[in-house]
Known about the structure:
Blueprint: E1 2-3, E2 17-22, H1 30-36, H2 39-48, E3 53-56, E4 68-89, E5 108-126, H3 141-158, H4 198-218
Parallel strand pairs: 2-5
Antiparallel strand pairs: 1-5, 3-4, 4-5
Amino acid sequence: MGIIENGTISGNLPSKEAFVVHYPGYPSSISRAVETLGGIQGITTARESTSNKLELHFRPEDPSAHPAYGERRHCNGFLLKISKEDVKKDSLPESQPVISTSDACLPEVRPALCADIVARVSESYCFDGMVDYQHVIPIHADIAQQKKRKWMEVKSLAGKNDLMDMADEDVMMLLPQFFSPKDRPDNLVLRLPVTSSPKKKDEELTQNLYEVKTRNETI
């Protein structure tokens, strides 16, 4: 482990390789982040796939949540393990004799940042697209049951009236597969409708009347 001096470190390059995921959010824990990426099995499958895509489900327990896709890109970086250590430095040179054991003669301790090169980073997954988050359905059955039980208690006390039945409020889940067919915005150029001239309209009307007259004579 080398000391970081002037923003640089020195050390041996390891043979171990790794990849990095630029997570577009602030997960509550590392385990939660891995779960949203499909778990270890899902990440392994994405690494072996030829699509070069890594799916990110912000709500894995919600089957209606549209995933975000991370694109695999090549990069050239290093994975560093940074720590803070106390480095001792003698305040007096070795040639100078020590006369007393005062604080000036004791070795000086100063904090220093140290870094260790853990692995080389050759690939990264970047999430540059948009994410559908407009609707969240009640997916937790226990919470839904608690809401229903509370409402049934209120309903038994209130009796039959014009209040809306809230017990079935989470039954309708008519959601599309995803809200947007694309995860990147596109620039659309709308073409103006083709306007026909009055002369052309008269010719089309005359032709239609001629066709109708000919058809009647044939009949």
